[in-house]
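Justification of computing resources. Each target in the renewal requires a structure prediction run like the one illustrated here; the chain below, 65 residues long, is used simply to show the kind of job we budget for.
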Amino acid sequence: MINEHGMLEFDPPSKFRVWLGNKWMEHKDELFTWENRLPEYDDKYYFRKHKWMLKRMFQEEIKNV
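Resulting structure tokens:
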């Protein structure tokens, strides 16, 4: 989106998107710790494969906050 000064503006990412990014980094850290390697897939694959589990985990965390 372009503001009145002609500069590009971005909406901040949602809490869910920030949380997803953190989960992806945690997943990479865990895999590296356990198997001494990084995943052979990207975050899009990880999110697509685990979207329902991640959604449920986020909702549980929000509910317990």
